[in-house]
Amino acid sequence: MAQIKLSNLRHSYLSKPESDEDYALKKIDLTWEDGGAYALLGPSGCGKSTLLNIISGLLVPSEGKILFDDQDVTALPPAKRNIAQVFQFPVIYDTMTVYDNLAFPLRNRGRDEETVKERVTAIAEMLEVTDMLTTRASNLSPDNKQKISMGRGLVRQDVNVVMFDEPLTVIDPHLKWKLRSKLKELHQRVKATMIYVTHDQTEALTFADQVVVMQDGEIVQIGTPVELFERPAHTFVGHFIGSPGMNVLPCDVKDGGAFFAGERVGLEGPLEDVTNGSAEIGIRPEFVSVSGNGTGLAAHVRKVADIGRHKVVEAIANNSRIHAILEGDAPNAGDQVNLEFKQSQTRLYKDGWLASTPGEGVQ
């Protein structure tokens, strides 16, 4: 396995890019440590697949370097980078048995049959497909085909990194959780460096120790799932992660505080300089409380969704939509209510970026 370092990386599909808008990937500096589980998370078109193709060697970046354990591999073809890749659609040989599919990457590199048997048996046990080893791959269900595709990526012990490009896209929703759990278990057992590319926040947050969130060719935040949820560095992260996402409300900053609908809102702590640029308040629905006691922000309930575990209340205040997640009783559509924000979780953003710091709340 290897540490992977991206240094001053940029990429454009144009021969003569003239501005940042011409780059599919803006400047990226990033290090993935040996043996870690990482995810690249973002919407379609954000640049995550471009970045994956650059790491794998399918694309040569316009600028910058890719280092595997301090070895510059920027100009090396995929075959010289010693990587394994699992794609959206299972890459297996339907005419071969499961055993021969798992053995193929090892036999292709001249490993002796004793080594092949040892590794295939070990991976089959991890994947829980030992009873399928003599089955032709064409007879497998889609989820088991993808299991074998994953196994082909994991069977070699000499790879620098295993990369997964949206591997659960074609899997039925009720089976996805099984494969997500299995993949996490496999990482813990084989300790391989793994990079998982997806637009699905659930897949990223349940698999990765560190998640890289991308938007418009840039990295907007790197953090643990808890860090991304509790303290989004950018309003995009707040929107993209969570269901529903973070409430983002326009506000005015004056007298050292933030005001929404004419009401001063208590913030988590001191503010950075926000004299220039647009300011917004960010608060997760989980930290919005709803009452009818006249204390807090006046609002009316537009609708209430009961999703079993909790209820999602959508309220309107000063023409802004605000979500609250409640357990137990909830108001009805059309009710007049009051909303209160948990101060330690209420943050200020300037031009999209976090501009408040933890500490004694600002009243």
TrEMBL record:
Q: Which InterPro entries match?
A: AAA+_ATPase, ABC_transporter-like_ATP-bd, ABC_transpr_FbpC, ABC_transpr_MalK/UgpC-like, Mo/tungstate-bd_C_term_dom, NA-bd_OB-fold, P-loop_NTPase, Transp-assoc_OB_typ2
| A Pfam family the protein falls into | ABC_tran
* Annotated ranges, domain ABC transporter: 4-241
Instruction: Please report the record's description of how this protein sits within the membrane.
Output: Peripheral membrane protein
Keyword list (alphabetical) reads: ATP-binding, Cell membrane, Hydrolase, Membrane, Nucleotide-binding, Transport
Q: Which compartments does it reside in?
A: Cell inner membrane
Q: What class of enzyme is it?
A: hydrolase
Query: Do you know which SMART domains this protein is assigned to?
Result: AAA (SM00382)
Please give the Gene Ontology molecular function terms for this protein: ABC-type ferric iron transporter activity; ATP binding; ATP hydrolysis activity
Example GO CC term: the record gives:
ATP-binding cassette (ABC) transporter complex, substrate-binding subunit-containing
Chief subcellular location equals membrane
Record-listed E.C. numbers: 3.6.3.20
UniProt record similarity statement: Belongs to the ABC transporter superfamily.
Name this protein carries in UniProt: sn-glycerol-3-phosphate import ATP-binding protein UgpC
Q: Which gene encodes it?
A: ugpC_8
